[in-house]
């Protein structure tokens, strides 16, 4: 086989791998922030992500528990929209219910590191590193 044909064949074989879209976010996830603020607060919880007909758009139902080193705690239910552009993910939430009621909705800016792992930042009332893990997925920490 000639060198130009071999090169063209190599490009054709490599093209599908390069063009593969990022994995879908749909499924069950858990998430947790690192301790933040002077009160050492952590937000952790569970989320169910459902694909919508729009490409890269998802509905997210989220339950979060915020606990602080001083014993304060908040529980919340949130309805969110997620937007995925390749490996970049933005999640914006609206509070449905919270106990006590002085809780602000949680938003996240994340990067899909592996099919079962997203890392980034909680960007709502305060910023904190956050990690999302797909329930039951293998991932690299």
Question: What does this protein look like?
Answer:
With 141 residues, this protein is mainly β. It has one domain (21-134): Lipocalin (Beta Barrel). 12% of the residues lie in helices and 53% in strands. The protein contains one helix and eight strands. The protein has one helix spanning 3-19, and strands spanning 27-33, 42-51, 57-67, 73-85, 88-99, 108-114, 117-123, 127-134. Strands 1-2-3-4-5-6-7-8 form an eight-stranded antiparallel barrel. Strand 7 (117-123) and strand 8 form a beta hairpin. The radius of gyration is 19 Å and the shape is globular. The protein starts with a helix and ends in a 7-residue tail after the last strand. The model is unreliable at 2-17 (pLDDT under 50).
